[in-house]
């Protein structure tokens, strides 16, 4: 359980922060950058949810919760020592990745195949979902970079990869089933 009875601690005043295992690292470390960017995805998702309803909003709420799981996963290095931890560290699972894939497949069945690239935009929800897509791609790139330096849960990387695809397809669905997609016209303004 998390108890936040004090919001500021002053422990980060010199440019360091604590990871989930208690280790202190620079706030600009790649690990902090990766999970901080996952937090940015979650914040942009909060904006998207202002325009979502019904099943779409429920799916976005599940993803927001997953993103906290992902942040918890990324802020806890040294997976090999998970068994020694005082409590079992939270890790993203293959089931979370599979759920995204299933939802992508279900949404995509309702859409016509693409014949052009799509410009971010359309309905307000679609525009915000495209923003979520681009920020999640950045989070994925940073997490992949982190994985070249330190151990990272492979399911965390897969989750981020599927998530940007989920946002893309959900944006199309939110654009009136793709009929309001804004299509790229190559060289239109030459």
Please tell me about this protein's structure.
The protein has 190 residues and is mainly alpha-helical. The chain has a single domain, classed as Up-down Bundle (Hypothetical Protein Ta1238, Chain: A), CATH 1.20.1200.10. It is built from 5 helices and 4 strands, in the order ββαααβααβ. The strands form 2 sheets. Strands 1-2 form a two-stranded antiparallel ribbon. The chain is elongated, with a radius of gyration of 18 Å.
Helix/strand class: mainly alpha
Q: Please give the order of strands in the largest beta sheet.
A: 1-2
**Might you state the CATH topology name?**
Hypothetical Protein Ta1238, Chain: A
Rounded to an integer in angstroms, the radius of gyration calculated over CA atoms is 18 Å
Fourth-level CATH superfamily = Cobalamin adenosyltransferase-like
What is the count of β-strands? 4
Give helix and strand order, one letter per element, not per position: EEHHHEHHE
Give the overall average pLDDT: 91
Q: What amount of the residues lies in strands?
A: 5-15%
Subcellular location: Cytoplasm
Keywords: ATP-binding, Cobalamin biosynthesis, Cytoplasm, Nucleotide-binding, Transferase
Family: Belongs to the Cob(I)alamin adenosyltransferase family.
Pfam family, one: Cob_adeno_trans
Identify the notable features of this structure and list them briefly.
single chain, mainly alpha, Hypothetical Protein Ta1238, Chain: A, two-stranded antiparallel ribbon, 5 helices, 53% helix
